[in-house]
Amino acid sequence: MHLTTHRLLLREYNLNDCQAVLDYQSNPDYLKYNPWDRRNLADVQEFVQRFINWQNQHPRTKFQLAVTLKDKNKLIGSCGIRMRQVGSHQAEVGYEISPLYWGQGYATEAARRMLHYGFEVQGLHRIWASCLAENAASARVLKKLGMQQEGHLRENRWMKGRYWDTLLYSILATEWKKQQS
Description:
By secondary structure, this protein is of the alpha+beta class. It has one domain (2-180): Gcn5-related N-acetyltransferase (GNAT) (Aminopeptidase). It is built from six helices and eight strands; from the N terminus they run E-E-H-H-H-E-E-E-H-E-H-E-E-H. Strands 1-2-3-4-5-6-8-7 form an eight-stranded mixed sheet, with helices on both faces.
């Protein structure tokens, strides 16, 4: 599966992607809002292999794609939608972009393309997302996508020796279609 945007190619993962993923997942800025304190090649190989395994599911419910710069063929992140079960009418969208490329609209561009895929191809009714409340940049991406905040879960996630608040967002197919017209 390949999805394109103006600047990006979202494509299936392969094991050759591990070093590029390790490069950005080892960045301290990336690690700040993720459960890991450090990453190594074995961790990343397991991470990438999970997405490769999802490619072979029939019927497929999880679509996690490598985000690459179209003009440079450079992997800079990941974006996908994940349904909990076959026949589900809702999915979670998630994304991560290398800190070297933050603030350039790539997360929004990739996630917008995944929302299009979810609503227009998969026929979903609702797509939701969550982010740590302290991750203001991620919350801004979700708002730019037209998602509405549904909740603020207080200290619901234990990570890195403390509790973190989580924000929940969603967008409905009707809201998506209205944005597109």
